[in-house]
Amino acid sequence: MSLAMTGERFQRGVQPPRDFPALVLNADFRPLSYFPLSLWSWQEAIKACFLDRVHILAEYDRTVRSPSVEIRIPSVVVLKNYVRPVRTTAFTRFNLFLRDGFVCQYCGTSGRMTFDHVIPRSRGGRTTWDNVVAACAECNLKKGSRTMKEARMRLLRLPRRPTPTELLNAGRRFPPNHLHQTWTDFLYWDIELEA
User: Cβ(79)–Cβ(26) under 8 Å?
Assistant: First the structure.
């Protein structure tokens, strides 16, 4: 099915449909992930609707159409079938930085990050959750292949494997650049309220 924007195709200043992602919620009404936020393109959301895999909870004020169907673009969809969350955390560069809050674990600065082996690889250190931390380029260079004691450096936090829930909660601290107004009710409803 080929869908086209209704009537506004050639007007200046009109956002194309690609700028209308849909927030995807699991069957328990929680986002599949917070960072990166679980989003589908408008095409994926509409396809899932036609395949009867989701319910539409909220829509944009824009429509798309085919020769026989016109539909409002979904902004929030919920899966009909529950997707079981992962039980382990993949050891990736992104998850490592997310665990450490995108902060150098030696000096506390944020920004462009690399990673450092606490026990250097040249001394038998392994590339594992328990031995790798986020580090700025300056601290990584300063430490080099020395131990922390030799480099006279300290860690802000000892490295360890995070649970999937810890990474999910860490992702909440970094909201995406764009949050549509229809999403906010679904993003933070499961956070414990302060007394």
Answer: yes
What does 10-26 look like in DSSP terms, one character per residue?
T-TTPPPGGG--EEEE-
CA geometry: angle 50, 54, 57, nearest 5 deg: 110
- 144 in Cβ contact with 129 (< 8 Å): no
The pTM of the whole model exceeds 0.90 = no
Radius of gyration in angstroms for the set of CA atoms belonging to the chain, rounded to a whole number? 22
Enumerate residues 6+ apart whose C-beta is below 8 A from 9: none
Contact predicate 87/29, CB 8 Å = no
Segment 118-154, tens digit of pLDDT: 999 999 999 999 999 999 999 999 999 999 999 999 9
CA distances from 135 to 72, 159, 167 (A): 46, 12, 18
**Torsion on CA atoms 97, 104, 117, 171, rounded to nearest 10:** -20
